[in-house]
């Protein structure tokens, strides 16, 4: 019996020694983290070497709540979650983000320095292990924030952004603790993605382009053309353009008789390329087609990255809702309901120097057979000089002069040299009215609206940045019918009649639908197919530079 008691006591002593050893081993790293996190600095910011951590307060709170215990290593080895976070940091490049913003290289260098060939952390490098733990935690918080609201503040850019600026709605500390409890860092980070299916599809496009760039052996010298190239033309740039069509898979390699000649095989491949990229498949290489073909996989990855960032800027109120979305760069209007497309129509948008602004406002009424109240700037710069040269100009253009209250004024009684001009000029309803037969109003400070146009041939052009800022729509009657579908009395015949009256008719909408005027030069459709568009307002580069700072 005494022997048994002695053996039990010996075992207990041994276990106690082992336990104390484990506790001391753990507490060494815990003590290191606690010392770091509780130390006071002038700016209260945490640093590792010269590198400033971006989420100091969140890091302190996270470790305080866990008694300063390490989060990403256990028993001298990086945990499965630690490995997963390292992987997700590297994967952030497919979100268009830079893994280096989340300490990617530093984490890898540090990990290699304190681990053996099997990935097991060496004994007692407590300072380095603390560095690694803090960097990984900071990386999670910084990456989470950028995925939820975007890397940069859109209101800081030169281009106007009036869709609001997102603020975090997620408690990242709670998200990290929940991710650790559930054993999945990936699920936690993916929960912050924009609620658009095209976001994940866009990530896959960047992934594919990244793989494509690894096998890219072409020279992407910029091709500038003095005139369009057509079937049968000979040009020094033809061989390079043919190689690009082959590279992108729109043309199979074939035996070329004369490399400098634009042959029928190349024309067919070009048409496929144009159709896939939203261009008129006319088989002609003009400036727009050449501009598109100048983009290497690396360039396209940058364009896609910029546009995934734009998706992250969109406020939650615009996600998964019924709305009218106008993508300026795509010259297209889409009526969406719960992300299903109900109507798609070509549009004409503002010229570069009369750019259509980025904003949102609810559509409240339709004006059938509208007057065009001519802006003061156009009246001063165009109408008044025209009347001074030609007294019949107003009659010829079906225009009239009115007071601010809408009372007609005899043009012969007016001093046309007065500055400022004291009256308003408006164009009467009719087929020649610059607004066409109907306009769709969503009142805003920009005086921008959607309207018909008598110049319908312009919708056949590839470049439709032609207006003073307003949006011209190709099929206004169909759009009006959709907006009025909750009122059975508005038949197609009644809409047509309302569009061809001598007097303007205002129809209030029962349902006010948000109109969002937006700018995207890339998106991926529901099938994952990429779509790139010309950066007509030259805005992508500013966003890219801000993201890469």
Give the oligomeric state of the chains in this entry, treating copies of one chain as homo and distinct chains as hetero. Answer: single chain
* Sheet with most strands: 8 strands, mixed, barrel
State mean pLDDT (0 to 100 scale): 90
Q: Into which percentage range does the β-strand content fall?
A: 15-25%
Query: How many E-type strands?
Result: 19
* Class computed from helices, strands and strand pairing: alpha+beta
Strand adjacency order, main sheet: 5-6-7-16-14-13-8-17
CATH class of the largest domain: Mainly Beta
| End-to-end CA span | 75 Å
Number of helices: 17
Q: Into how many domains do the coordinates divide?
A: 3
Structural description of this entry:
Mean pLDDT is 90; it is low at 10-26. By secondary structure, the chain is of the alpha+beta class. Helix 1 (2-38) packs across helix 5 and helix 4 (104-113) runs antiparallel to helix 5 (126-149). The N and C termini lie far apart (75 Å). An eight-stranded mixed β-barrel has the order 5-6-7-16-14-13-8-17. A four-stranded antiparallel β-sheet has the order 9-12-10-11. The protein has a two-stranded antiparallel sheet with strand order 1-2. The protein has helices at 2-38, 56-65, 80-91, 104-113, 126-149, 172-182, 185-190, 197-214, 238-247, 264-276, 287-293, 297-313, 376-389, 393-396, 476-483, 492-498, 540-548; strands at residues 47-48, 51-52, 73-74, 77-78, 323-327, 332-337, 340-350, 359-368, 372-373, 399-402, 408-409, 424-427, 438-441, 450-451, 465-467, 471-473, 505-518, 522-524, 530-532. It is 40% helix and 15% strand. The chain has three domains: 26-193, no CATH class; 238-295, no CATH class; 316-525, L,D-transpeptidase catalytic domain-like, CATH 2.40.440.
